[in-house]
Design goal:
The protein is of the alpha+beta class. It is built from 2 helices and 7 strands. It has a single domain, classed as SH3 type barrels, CATH 2.30.30.50. It is 14% helix and 31% strand. A hairpin with a 3-residue loop joins strand 4 (53-62) and strand 5.
Amino acid sequence: MADINRDDDDTVEIALPPRFAIGERVASRSVVRNDGTYRGKDIGDVLVGKGDIGFVQSIGTFLQQFYIYAVEFVDSGHRVGMRGKELCTLDHLPDEVITQLGEQRARQLASLR
């Protein structure tokens, strides 16, 4: 039987609180394709595009190591399980990120729903 690849990192995320809260607005950091676990779509179909915005609906765990965030993406209506490293918050941007974006772009992000 093949070993399950846990990740390059031996960090146990669930030893710390989740990065995101239920209801938090997040954006995808990458394209997510169907690996065969999303019903009604072909394997390889794009489920989430980079930058797509969604809301965390629930938080689970995987392999007693990682948090999995069920994210409902507004435009597509897809609910997809994602790792924290695949997401970026839009509700709690650090001050240094807002400074880099500039006030105008930060206001634009705040208005996206």
